[in-house]
Structure formats: structure tokens, C-alpha cells
Write a structure and sequence with these properties.
two-stranded antiparallel ribbon, mainly alpha, 2 domains, 278 residues
């Protein structure tokens, strides 16, 4: 029994080959934009790309495999090239059977998807396409159609190669984290979790817009409720709405994202109609 467990662990700790990572890359590429579910977004691509490896590593433990799948079916949305690299790093961490790897992988994806979305959009979506597109368009105006062919022939393979290198960097970096630096995992997990909370917290006032027009009037003096709330804590109402939404999704039995969206729509319409919310 002891030798059998050692064999399973040694097999799981073997790093994936570059050929296997190309398989991972292809599966992620064809599904990253295939699902626009607001509940999971690219979470489906994560599961589809990781699936064959989970089935290989955890075939002897169906319960653990199920936890691995469920852990990666959560909301994830990032620029696709960096998203693949982050998912590859999470895959390396998920390769470990230690229960703490579940939280670490989830926290890693949550904390990195926001910052790397902005970087990835600039590096891979905005700058190359604008620059190369402008050059190609100018050449086309001059009657040179070959420039378009050159752009496709050079830019597409180059960007594919860069994407694959990012995946390799992400995976082997994650593999190093759970091998040579395993004694530091608790500190790293806590740091990544804190970073994830900060990122999500920073998104609340940016994405959730809730204000109230109510005011307190005494004689000629008037004080808006919104200014009082802002004095207590800026973006207090968005924080309250986010907290209520989170509580409903996690604590109310039978609640899901679709039901919560409809509840929010009806509630905001009614509260706006009665002048409670602006």
C-alpha cells in the first residue's frame, strides 16, 4: 500500500512535456471565447483544457478529481494569452494532492486575472494590431497587397509562439512552486489570497454604481444621505449591494446567478421608482 501511494505521488509530480502543454494550449484556445456565461466565463475553458490531465492524475480518486473540476469551474476572465498562462500555472499547482493546492490555485487565478488582462490587452490586442494594421492599411492604399499576406504569415506564427512560451513559463513556474518551494506554500497562499481580495475589492466601486438621491431637510438646510454615506466610507452602497449578492449566492439554498440577476433587476427598478436609489 505504501509503495502504491509513493508510485502515484511520483507519477503526479512528473512535469508535463512540451507536447502535452501544446495539447493544453489547443484545448484552451478553442474554448476560451466559446462560452460567455457570466457565471463562469473562461472557467469552462479551464476545465476543458485541464480535464485530460486531471483524469490521468486522479483516476484512482474520483472525489478528489471532482473537487479539482469544481475548483476550476469558477468565474475566470482574462486576456486569452495570459489567461492560458495563468491557468497553466494553476494546473501545475493542482497537480499536487495536498488539499491546500485547491485554495492556492483558485487564489492565484483570482488575483492575477485582473492585472494581466490589462497588460495582455495592451501587448497582444491593442499595440500589435494597431501598428501592424496601420502599416498594412497604408500599404494597401498604395496598392501593395503583399503586405497583408506578410502580416498574416509573420504575425500569426509569432503570436502563437509567444502564447506557447507564456504557457510553458506559467506551468513550469507553478511546478517549481509546489516542489522546490513547497515549504513556502502557506505564506504564498496567504499573500495571493490577500492580493485576490484587494483586486476584487478595488473592482467594486469601479463596476457597481449605486447611489441614493434621498436628503434630510431641516428648514433651509439640506443634507444628502449620499454625502453622509460617503463620509462614513466611500462607495458604501456598492459594498453593501456586493455583500448582499455574495450572501445570497453562497448562503441561500437554491440560489444561482440567473435568479440573483433577476432579483437585482426587479429590486433596482422598484427602488428607483420610489426614489430610494438614483
Amino acid at each position: 500500500m505504501w509503495m502504491q501511494e509513493e508510485l502515484v505521488m511520483s507519477e503526479n509530480n512528473q512535469k508535463l512535456t512540451k507536447k502535452e502543454l501544446r495539447k493544453f494550449s489547443l484545448r484552451y484556445a478553442i474554448t476560451a471565447q466559446a462560452s460567455q456565461s457570466y457565471e463562469a466565463m473562461q472557467g469552462i475553458a479551464c476545465v476543458y483544457s485541464m480535464g485530460p490531465f486531471f483524469e490521468k492524475w486522479f483516476a484512482d480518486d474520483p472525489d478528489l478529481m471532482q473537487k479539482k473540476f469544481q475548483n476550476n469551474l469558477k468565474f475566470f476572465n482574462c486576456q486569452t494569452y495570459f489567461g492560458a498562462a495563468i491557468t497553466a500555472a494553476a494546473l501545475a499547482i493542482e497537480q499536487d494532492r495536498d488539499p491546500s493546492s485547491l485554495q492556492l490555485a483558485a487564489s492565484l487565478k483570482t488575483s492575477l486575472m485582473g492585472p494581466f488582462s490589462g497588460i495582455g490587452d495592451a501587448l497582444f490586442n491593442t499595440i500589435p494590431k494597431v501598428v501592424m494594421g496601420a502599416m498594412t492599411a497604408y500599404a494597401a492604399i498604395e496598392g501593395n497587397w503583399i503586405t497583408c499576406i506578410i502580416m498574416i504569415a509573420i504575425f500569426t506564427p509569432l503570436i502563437t509562439w509567444v502564447r506557447q512560451k507564456l504557457i510553458e513559463i506559467g506551468y513550469y513556474g507553478g511546478a517549481e512552486l509546489i516542489t522546490s518551494r513547497k515549504d513556502q506554500l502557506n505564506n504564498i497562499r496567504d499573500a495571493v489570497s490577500v492580493l485576490g481580495v484587494i483586486v476584487i475589492g478595488a473592482l467594486i466601486p469601479s463596476l457597481v454604481k449605486v447611489t441614493t438621491p434621498l436628503a434630510i431637510t431641516i428648514g433651509d438646510a439640506s443634507q444628502t444621505i449620499q454625502s453622509i454615506l460617503d463620509g462614513i466610507l466611500p462607495a458604501l452602497l456598492p459594498c453593501i449591494v456586493t455583500a448582499v449578492t455574495y450572501f445570497g449566492l453562497t448562503k441561500v439554498k437554491g440560489m444561482n446567478t440567473v435568479k440573483m440577476v433577476w432579483i437585482m433587476i426587479v429590486a433596482t427598478i422598484l427602488l428607483s421608482y420610489f426614489g430610494i436609489l438614483a
